[in-house]
Specification:
alpha/beta; eight-stranded mixed beta sheet
């Protein structure tokens, strides 16, 4: 299909799959000379009105000359892109570079005319908006900075495409035509528009999978048992409210039903008047391509592929998985799976259990995502259980087990949960993060609205989960955990903690602080809870012992008192049942605690109980039998809560935990998350610096990468690194080579005394303790003596590679680094130079982009921070200058994805100002997929 262009090779990196406004997908790719028939067929399906809007005159058909012009491009001055579904064009866009007079031109002209044409049947799906994002990115790559478009005033849809894009625009009207001109540099508004469209489209694509109007299960056996038949039975037993179809090509032609469900040999045999929204595919992997083709031709909107035999089975399966995703996207369908466990939606108007879970989970307000089917089963079981552990009356809103997550991933589900009114808390079990920049961005936004609790598997083993192309992190687990916490993620270690924390957040309010009251009828259990609170960083009050003779009334009175205390933010109740105490006593105590908690709805309460009695079940019953219990007959789901656990009309279920450490750990996570939410209300700012020259830096980066075609990247020479950093206002002190004593003296005279003499050999670099640095050399005599000592003790000049550098003011030596970590994304690191960071690991990290608040916090978060602020009588150093440096490095890496590594070492921070004495920069070609360009689906791997 693709052919070489006139001037440049086919730009395959411009190809992309995108999600449209209605949740369907389309493929965007360059138009080539092989597309003549497709273009002609496409144009024939466009209405006369749309043709008139495009050409400003009746234009019923394209001439052979037109077809040649619109399909032959040089991919530089003339570019055409098409959006395709099923291999056929549904929309096109092109630009032509022009000069100031509007005539065809080449570089350095930086303006182009742009024009769109969208097939009428696909207008309103957001196709033109997606094409505009991609053609603008292509134009910027080719040195075009402005677009001009001429539109008829009646073509209001196209005018809206341009005006809503968020770019800085200028509009004029002349000769009956609206002329729009706009710059292509992304603005805050254009990025916000792009991301809002991305969220709506991706959320809609997941919503189509979770709330279909009809489901076809393909691979249903005639006899009970088997995967397909089990899923069909689960759908029926759940009370699915839509239409069901059973499909199997082995069915006899005269078979009309299977268990009362209409039976068909092929999805194409279903009545054309009936839309099939979702297909659950449970056939052997070799048969899946035929099923996908049939579903695509039938107009099925999405697939859940439970079939195994894909990337989890080896190289052949991985290629089969790639082809599956490519094929499905050709038809505009999204896929959950393959090797998926399925999905659940407990909404009363859906009741979907398209999964292998034999029992429909209880309705609730927790969203659950799992990449592992086994872990998904365990999580569903724990949330469904009542008693025998944490109180389990809180159910789920939706559940997605993505299997190999070859298409729909946790990022897509986060987009859906973000504004889902039925989900208050999101729980995720992840084994890999495919797009870390996007995940942290979405996690931060989601966490600002509702809690997001994550446990990550395979974090220490280094073994890639089967079916996943995992990006192995180079950062310690503790560092990755801290980075995700900065994005608002509640990071826990086990699925037990995931459920414990989720249940607390789902039905209890967020605590206002870390002050915890402890009361109960066991002094020992109270003291144990007190100790755990201290270990988790909480501020507990001395436990209040009600003695073993305490009645339900005593518990209620004590809890009332604790909750009304202005110096208490949360309460932990410890309950030890008396020997022989029966269910009635448990129920009485549960009612008393629930009544007291209900009277103070702003403070969370949890219970630590010993499993001798039935308090856990009683507390569940106290909530689930309330007048507005979720899932009770005749009730509707509660509206979204302003804060977790505060849904209006929903009874407060008090979580009961069988161990103090589980209750306190969940409460501790709630305290930390609540503090993050408060801090997020006043977010920091990413400052703008007038002396930053982003365009010059981009040009220099392109020039440096062009000199080296190594896809792994290139380490810049010191002078090149210094020049690039200077474009971002980062000055690196000059060093001059000193291959012999005479050249060292010449260098010192050029720089001015006093100077430092340093070795740059890798084994001695930054190792003053090994004698590779001589400081404060006041004159030439000192310099020559130091040079002779250095070469005599450590080796010849060729080995040592000595350099001369002017002395910096005395201060504290620090290290600033930025890297693109495969799993965590862009990360900024800071620490003191030497043993503190290298031996003890006293280094702090922040996700890029770093705000002013982040920069301030990262400096103060290392254990050795007091040295910067006047420890033991020393003069404080210029930390504001250090904060500015951190933000400048962050800006450089955030603006240019080609910058994959920066190391400034040492950075000497003095009382006034700082000096960067050494710098290294590493560049690499930008990734084909990141979170900085136009929206696009991940590449099928």
């Amino acid at each position: 299909m693709e052919t070489p262009s006139d001037r440049h090779a086919y730009p395959a990196h411009w190809e992309a799959d995108v999600v449209l406004r209605d949740g369907g997908t389309a493929r965007i790719r360059p138009i080539t000379g092989a597309d003549a028939e497709r273009l002609t067929s496409f144009y024939e399906q466009v209405s006369d009105e749309s043709k008139y809007y495009r050409f400003f005159a009746p234009y019923p058909r394209l001439s052979a000359k037109d077809v040649h012009r619109f399909t032959h491009h040089d991919h530089v001055d003339r570019v055409g892109l098409a959006a395709t579904v099923g291999g056929e064009f549904i929309a096109t866009v092109r630009y032509d570079r022009i000069d100031a007079q509007g005539r065809p031109a080449s570089a350095p002209a930086d303006e182009a005319e742009v024009a769109f044409l969208v097939q009428d049947a696909h207008q309103g799906r957001g196709v033109a908006s997606a094409l505009l994002e991609h053609i603008a990115a292509v134009a910027r790559e080719r040195g075009i900075r402005r677009f001009a478009a001429e539109v008829l005033p009646a073509n209001t849809k196209m005018i809206k495409v341009f005006t809503d894009a968020g770019y800085t625009q200028r509009r004029s009207f002349e000769d009956g035509v609206v002329r729009l001109e706009f710059g292509l540099e992304p603005t805050e508004a254009s990025v916000a528009v792009q991301r809002a469209r991305e969220q709506r489209a991706e959320a809609r694509s997941v919503q189509r999978l979770l709330a279909p109007g009809s489901v076809a299960v393909i691979g249903v056996g005639r006899a009970p048992g088997g995967v397909g038949r089990s899923i069909l039975e689960n759908l029926k037993d759940a009370g699915y409210t839509g239409r069901l179809y059973a499909v199997n090509r082995a069915f006899p032609e005269d078979l009309a039903e299977v268990d009362g469900v209409p039976a068909h040999r092929c999805v194409r045999d279903i009545d054309p008047a009936d839309q099939v929204d979702l297909a659950v595919v449970a056939v052997p992997a070799p048969d899946v391509p035929d099923v996908v083709a049939e579903c695509g031709a039938r107009g099925v909107q999405g697939l859940i592929v439970v079939s195994a035999g894909y990337a989890e089975s080896g190289a052949e399966g991985r290629e089969r998985q790639r082809e599956l995703i490519r094929q499905a996207r050709t038809y505009g369908m999204r896929i959950i799976g393959p090797n998926a466990f399925g999905v659940v939606n407990t909404a009363a108007d859906v009741r979907l259990n398209a999964s292998l879970a034999p029992e429909m989970p209880r309705p609730g307000r927790i969203g659950l995502f799992a990449q592992s089917g086994a872990i998904g089963i365990a999580l569903l079981a724990r949330l469904h259980r009542r008693g025998g552990g944490v109180t389990g009356a809180t159910g789920i809103s939706t559940f997605v087990s993505a299997g190999n997550r070859a298409d729909v991933s946790g990022n897509d589900v986060l987009q859906y949960w973000y504004d889902d009114p039925d989900t208050d808390v999101a729980l995720m079990y992840l084994e890999s993060i495919g797009n870390p920049r996007k995940f942290t961005r979405l996690a931060r936004r989601t966490a600002e609205a509702k809690p997001l609790v994550v446990v990550q598997g395979a974090r220490h083993s280094g073994i890639a989960p089967t079916g996943h192309a995992v990006r192995a992190t180079r950062l310690p687990y503790a560092t990755v955990s801290a980075l995700l916490r900065q994005a608002g993620v509640i990071r826990v270690d086990t699925i037990t903690e995931l459920v414990d924390t989720g249940l607390l957040l789902a039905r209890q309010p967020l605590p206002a602080g870390p002050r915890v009251a402890i009361l109960g009828n066991s002094e020992s259990l109270g003291l144990l809870t007190y100790d755990v609170c201290l270990s988790e960083g909480l501020r507990p009050k001395p436990p209040r012992d009600l003695t073993t003779a305490a009645s339900a009334a005593d518990f209620r009175a004590a809890l009332d008192e604790a909750l009304t205390d202005d110096k208490t933010d949360a309460v932990v109740v410890t309950a030890m049942p008396a020997v022989g105490e029966g269910q009635a006593g448990d129920a009485e105590l549960a009612a008393a605690l629930s009544a007291a908690a209900a009277a103070a709805p702003a403070k969370p309460v949890c219970v630590v109980h010993v499993e001798l009695g039935g308090l856990a079940e009683a507390l569940s019953a106290a909530a689930s039998t309330g007048p507005n219990a979720p899932g009770a007959p005749g009730t509707q789901p509660a509206p979204p809560a302003a804060t977790p656990g505060a849904a209006e009309g929903t009874p407060r279920l008090i979580p009961a935990y069988p161990a103090a450490e589980r209750a306190v750990r969940a409460l501790s996570e709630a305290v930390k998350y609540a503090q993050w939410r408060r801090d997020a209300t006043e977010p920091g700012k990413v400052p703008e610096y007038e002396d930053v020259d982003e365009a010059a830096a981009a040009a220099r980066i392109a020039e440096l990468l062009a000199k080296d075609d190594d896809p792994r990247g290139v380490e810049l020479a010191p002078d090149d690194a210094r020049d690039l950093l200077a474009h971002y206002g980062i000055a690196v002190r000059q060093t001059l080579p000193a291959p012999d004593a005479d050249r060292a003296a010449d260098a010192a005279r050029a720089l001015g005394y006093p100077v430092a003499l340093k070795t740059t050999a890798p084994h001695l670099r930054h190792r003053a303790d090994l004698g590779g640095v001589r400081l404060d050399l006041a004159d030439e005599t000192d310099l020559r003596r130091a040079y002779e000592e250095l070469t005599r003790q450590l080796g010849g000049p060729a080995e040592l590679r000595p350099v001369v550098q002017s002395m910096a003011p005395r201060g504290v030596d620090t290290v600033v680094r930025a890297v693109i970590d495969p799993a965590a994304g862009a990360v900024l690191s800071f620490g003191l130079a030497g043993a503190a960071s290298e031996l003890l690991g006293d280094t702090a990290h922040r996700l890029i982009p770093v705000t002013d608040q982040d920069a301030r916090a990262v400096i103060r978060s290392i254990k050795t921070a007091p040295i910067l602020f006047g420890w033991r009588g020393a003069a404080p150093v210029d930390t504001p200058a250090l904060e500015e440096l951190l933000q400048r490095v962050s800006r450089l890496v955030d603006d240019h994805p080609e910058v994959v590594g920066v190391a400034l070492e040492p950075v000497v921070v003095a009382q006034h100002g700082l000096s960067v004495l050494g710098a290294s920069v590493r560049l690499a070609p930008p990734p084909a997929r990141d979170d900085l360009g136009p929206r696009t689906l991940p590449v099928a791997y």
